Fold each of these.
Amino acid sequence: MDLELEKMLRPPEYDMPLYPPKVITLATGGQMVVRPIERDEVPIVLKAVKPTMKIDRDFYDVVGSRLYSELLSWQKYRCRNAYALIGQVDGILVGCVNGRMLSKKVGISLHTLAIERGIRAGAHLFAAKMEHHIEFLGQKEVWITAESPIGFRRWMIEYELIKQEGVQHELGGAESFKLSRELYFKHKPRLVAGLRPCPPDLLEKARKEIIIADEDMINKQICGAKGAWNK
Ligand SMILES: CC(C)(COP(=O)(O)OP(=O)(O)OC[C@H]1O[C@@H](n2cnc3c(N)ncnc32)[C@H](O)[C@@H]1OP(=O)(O)O)[C@@H](O)C(=O)NCCC(=O)NCCS
């Protein structure tokens, strides 16, 4: 590798604090560990994202493809100030979110993908992402867009996000909405769940192995009857 050239190709990065892991007790009684991933865990997470790229339902194909590319770019140092969080229940990957810092003050929400549906994994992970930007990265606001109607209901409506006139979001230049610190703290008691510290045994299990459901199961879960995994 030409190290001098590589140095030029890599965007400079802030020193970003890591998201402190937590555990959320789901409505089903399951315990979802929410934690940040390291770059060396990206290939395994991509195994769960890949099948979603072909699912022409609820914009899974668009979001899955974009998330795949963003995670890969971050792993290979081609995405600036990025991070990713995952949710695991019994070690199984049930969802993934990612974002980045545009500046010290402004956070960019990139994607939210629920691999297991019907347990609000996506909603909880999105909330964790907002928590990260506002509370741990200490940002003033987060810029958010939605590619899907479900996303629009979950984020724009539930958090009463502020439409930013004349601001294009970096995801395709779509309409950008803003979560301010005030809005975050207003909705936090209702939407941001979980306990810290995450019990060490749960965290150790989650870190030891990210279990990926096979492609058939992921398809069934996303396209099949509501809550197929949890019955
Ligand atoms: C948006 C998203 C992250 C929300 O995840 P979530 O909070 O875990 O919610 P689910 O996807 O399980 O359920 C959302 C709705 O779809 C319905 N649904 C449709 N198919 C379903 C299935 N196979 N299993 C469970 N629920 C299903 C649910 O009834 C639920 O309805 P509700 O909004 O009235 O509760 C997730 O739907 C997703 O990953 N979608 C594709 C990518 C995407 O759109 N990302 C957001 C971009 S802005």
Amino acid sequence: MNKLYVTITIDTENPQTLYVANTCKTDTLLNSNNEKNYGMKYILSAFKNYGIHATWYLNIYEKYLMGEKLMAKVCNTLLKNEQDVQLHTHPVWLMDPEERKRIYMSQYSLEEQIYIIEKGIEDIYKLTGTAPIAHRGGAYGINKNTLQALSATKMKIDSSLFYKNPNCKISSIYKNSIHKLGGIIEFPVSVYRTNTNYLIPYKSDTDRIEKVDINYSAIDDIKNVCESNISGRHIYMNVFMHSFSFYKFFYDGIKPGVSLFKPDKKAIRKFHVVMKYLCTNPNVEIITVNQLYQKLENLKLSDNDNVPKIKRIRIV
Ligand SMILES: [Zn+2]
């Protein structure tokens, strides 16, 4: 039977939309206002129970907003738990902290992007002692210059290509396959196609591309995507989440009078079911992006660009 390598990647940051809009200033990574922390601390303790090593794409640029002390604590906590720290670029805090207009990598020139990535590598190295090798652009907002800048700064992997996402300004003939793109290895955000038939006749069927994500995907979707990859001989996929995936504001935004730190119990339950499924599936091996990179030399990558299809029937 074909082995499926699954990377669990966590965009590690405070909620950028709220921060850019200045509606939130509180750290959600480690802070909890004396309540239980459902950010990094909760995810790490769950990973410890499951024996999972994940990849944390760290928005190190929040250092210029929240201070280096917090970022140092974040890095120490991740390293202590033997997690993989890689680079997540939300350049606004380094390049445009006052106006907050340029929030995507694609809004910067090649020279600026090289500077942003160099600074990110340097800042992560300073706090972890290891230079990152993999990158994910904030909100997938990269363009061709980003790939060139990653290649110029000796990064190895980009993981921002998100098929059909409007923020993602690069295109590729591949949707899910790991491939060379613009001089660097591209490990796309894993996607699948859903086709929903509505039984009520006036509502037409929908055909959508979705990413494999703890918040957005149904449990059965994730299981079906795994099974499709295993039987389709597609040997790797990514499960996406955020460091703030378990807070209620993820969907609803922060409303006056509602605690910022209120847990989203439904998302938490879903996370545990998916982790248990992955850990107990004999055909699945959970590895970090760094471990996957080490394996790439010996892995026979297939051209089979599998996009799993999921059919759903809904009453309304
Ligand atoms: Zn982000």
Amino acid sequence: MTTSTSDVLVIGGGPAGISAALWAARLGVTPLLLEGGPRLGGQLLRSYHRSVDCPGFYGLTGAEIADRLTEHLVAESVPFRVNARVTELSTETLTATVGDEHLTARAIILALGVEKRRLGIPGEREFAGRGVSTSATRDNHLYKNKDVVIVGGGDGAFEEALMLDDAGCRVTLIHRSDRFRARPRYRDAVFARPGIRVLTHACPTEILGDEAVRAIRLEIAPPGEAPKTVTLDVSGVFLTLGILPATALVAGQLDRDAEGFIVTDRHGATSRPGVWACGEATHPLLPSITTAFGDGATAAKAAFQWLAVSSQ
Ligand SMILES: Cc1cc2nc3c(=O)[nH]c(=O)nc-3n(C[C@H](O)[C@H](O)[C@H](O)COP(=O)(O)OP(=O)(O)OC[C@H]3O[C@@H](n4cnc5c(N)ncnc54)[C@H](O)[C@@H]3O)c2cc1C
């Protein structure tokens, strides 16, 4: 077990964490940015369409924005590590565990973002990787000329429906109601595509197959009508069911709201001194790249001021 120390540990390498690390370095405190995945970028790596609403990144895909941000950190010599998932964290001693290493800091900035929700129905786990996918970005090429369903009603589901249609799949989007969380730009684009069918008031109840997925069973229950069970023959089931805050790491340590988002003040301060949180894990009014950048910068400034006062 090795131990290393930095001024500020920033946990989570999406837009909020990248901005926090960059700003911490600019303010003269030494950050270490820790990202659990193999690349920096967080949800940017799942966004396939070209940006129209992030100032300065017009026309770039999410992955291209992630590359630009990574280049920016490298150019500014901001230390970061990938494949560095924090598995344990003490917000009391400001210590994080990554593999067999203990990392300590004088302050911690949490930029944990959100993770994908699961359906919890028979077949979901059994067929994972054999027809059940949580990433059309990764798997769309496997389903050309095949029937697929995509389950969900948010940005991810609508964007992935477009991506699967582009990849030559026969796409049905399934959602439990007729209200969608997706941004209008994704919604309008899906409804304008003749190749995408949208089934509303439909809940998957079972995924069926043998070596691979063959069908999905749904209960369709429009308001005021008797529910009916329908089985669709499909080769692929894409699950894009929305998000949960990725905050299990701090369960029981920090105040969180009923949905698990970290409660902060407007500068990102959490219920523990020395610990800030930023980005989508804090339930922003507008979950976006732009607000994540701003939140990260604010948390870095607040941590910097706190460190300056506490070292006097
Ligand atoms: C399909 C899609 C399309 C979108 N389109 C747009 C758009 O057009 N415009 C826009 O502004 N926004 C868009 N968004 C939203 C935007 O990407 C998010 O709001 C933004 O990425 C949030 O940034 P974040 O840093 O708070 O969290 P995230 O991007 O979720 O990053 C969190 C990071 O923390 C890491 N992490 C979590 N736990 C740990 C741990 N224990 N140890 C180490 N690392 C950890 C995760 O691996 C992840 O990389 C879209 C999102 C999706 C999914």
